UniProtKB/TrEMBL annotation:
This is Alpha-1,4 glucan phosphorylase. One of its GO terms (cellular component) is cytoplasm. InterPro entries: Glycg_phsphrylas (IPR011833), Glyco_trans_35 (IPR000811), Pyridoxal_P_attach_site (IPR035090). It comes from the Bacteria. One of its GO terms (biological process) is glycogen catabolic process.
Amino acid sequence: MQTVPNHQVDNLQIEDDRTGLSVECLKRAFLDNLFYVQGKFPKIATKNDYYMALAYTVRDRLLQRWINTAVIYTDRASRTVSYLSAEFLMGPHLGNNLVNLGIYDQVKQAVSELGLDLEDLLEQEEEPGLGNGGLGRLAACYLDSMATLEIPSLGYGIRYEFGIFDQDIRDGWQVEITDKWLHCGNPWEIARPEWAIYVRLGGHTEAYTDERGRYRVRWIPFQVIKGVPHDTPLLGYKTNTANTLRLWTAEAPESFDFAAFNSGDYLGAVQEKMVSENLSKVLYPNDDSSQGKRLRLAQQIFFVSCSLQDMIRIVFGQNVPLEKFHEKFVVQLNDTHPAIAVAELMRLLIDEHDMGWDQAWSITQKSLAYTNHTLLPEALERWPISLFGELLPRHLEIIYEINYHFLEEVKAKFPADSDRLRRMSLIDESGEKYVRMAHLACVGSHSINGVAALHTKLLQQDVLRDFYQMYPEKFNNKTNGVTPRRFIVLSNPRLTNLISSKIGDNWVKNLKDLKHLEAFVDDPEFCSQWRSIKSAIKQDLVAYIQKQNGITVNPDSIFDIQAKRFHEYKRQHLNALHIITLYNRIKANPDIDITPRTFIFGGKAAPGYYMAKLIIKLINSIGDVVNNDPDVRDRLKVVFLKNYSVKFAQRVYPAADLSEQISMAGKEASGTGNMKFALNGALTIGTLDGANVEIREEVGEENFFIFGLTAPEVYALKARGYRPLDYYHSNRELKAVIDRIASGHFSHGDTKLFKPLLDSLLYRDEYLLFADYQAYIDCQDYVSQVYRDRDRWTRMSILNVARMGKFSSDRSIHDYCQDIWNIQSVPIELGECIQAKE
Ligand code: KOT
């Protein structure tokens, strides 16, 4: 047990009720919170009351560490990472905090002695879905690793009132429902209205000469928004470090509506308030695409300006001169959503803090670093100049000036290359004018990184080629990683216990230690335990599917899972083509010997992405037919698990035999689901895309099912002229699959329903499903064959886990610290600096 502050009462040591970790103390504290915070006693308490009481009990234990951490960081003015992200997909806090505090078992026992079930209470938590998918979840994994590695850090983002929508499936279609994650309150956060910050929008600028005769600009805004920080403590795994996630809520400033109010325009004043609050109302539900909406740009400047002003407040509070901003903070930009920071930091330094251009520019570049997360052209953010200038007139002026200096630099390095200037300009002038946010981020940062080796290489060769030629020294790769605390220890306790029983528990902090498992790969007893654990977890998912979907699933079948956002480039429909191929084989020969499979899908489609929604409908329609066709005889099942979320992902990864990572090569920047599946003992069927390449390198090619065109082959095929119809006509099984869909077999005879999808495949097939079809089917046939050799499969599964050490987010964060952030850990001692009370 850890040391905690104690009361001395008549020479008797008793634990403090807010910090003690013994079962008895936890019970007392829990009942105390139920009474004093929830205002309930056991007889009338609801499950939610119990959850809240437990959450407050755990939060109390975090607070002591949080305050200690803050005191030490402040005293030492520690160098700090500021992670700016429009999304943080944190997942439920309670379980994670229990794991990181090391009190999971004590709390389980404490609540059980009070007649409650911990799993039941964990289920109660409404997760904060403040992100779409990979990018937001990565931010959350990185915050966990920074706390675990004792790196001073602040996560800055937006406290959306409505996070990612809840997904329902009706008649096979996705239906979106608003997410009301705050409706029962949020026990994990503390509002800090005393640290509110004001952000300007709109209006115009005026030039003037200051008292020292210098040219200055004044910005007269149309609107001012107040940002109120809400802080959540984030505890590291078995450390005393509790860092902060600071999310901003938009409000109307108190004084702003007085004019309207005084003139009797009460509704006008309230309207003003509503307009302000709109800013943090809802998360944009698009993954990998950018829409150019005004409110979205307003959200970006809102959280970026609040965060930078907050950092400046901290700098002054610690008596650090502003000229040393870049020594106190390094600011990581999570894609271009916060890239307006380049212009905003310049504005703050020059207009608000009197600094000269050159010094401001040097500080800005030294402070900022940019991570790119996508190769999709439609995801590269651009803002129409008209919209940009209307909302951010001063920033547009600054961007023009940055552009002027930058293009001079380009001219000097590449004389007489006007084409290059046009391509690299921060302003796209090919038609309607746009601000190019990725260019702004590249110019304003000292580091530009991709998220997997292949992705970084493609950035250098293609998407950001000109910038690579201009600034080769800025480019570096940081392959993504995931936190083993949430994605093994918390989500897969059975596997965790088996692993730790063999190699101890150091691997939780040093994931490379998993390699010691290799010593047991020939131990039949261990292999059999490995297999029975997977089997037990699959049984749990079987029960869940039975309850959720009413589908009876064979636990001995291959659990073949594709869980991720729906997008054409991720090719969930290629998976669907495989299902229909097997179905056709059964229909042609009902007694065919097929390895039973359960195809499980999970994931949301952007509400406006018609084709992705049609793919969801197709999968559900195939399920309706296949699951009920007597010829199939339970050899195939298709299950769509609705409302995929972090909570849900934790249930799904451990149960997978086969992980589908089948994007068209050159499109998936990294992927992180691929890592979570493999860490839980699933084998991967995948293309040579994103981090799949590195996973295969680590686990060994004999333990990975690879198929399909490589990225260079994709480019070459497209350059030659790709004709999907040729594949359709020359591949008998492929033709039968497409014809089966076109016939209306999966749509009650309706031949129109899936026509847009089929037409897109037959006549365009942008993501080369037809080109990869045969390779995919052959590879899947091979998977089915290997699965029949249970010993071989188990061996492959163990070796996958044993060799996945590289993909811990601890390794990623360690590399960011070394190569980009130049930051050291600051261990936190408990006890001396602050006692809970005495
Ligand atoms: C969304 C909008 C604009 C730019 C990028 C995105 C984006 C990228 N959202 N999610 N991603 C994913 O990020 C993950 C973490 O790096 C990657 O693993 C994944 O491949 C990206 O698609």
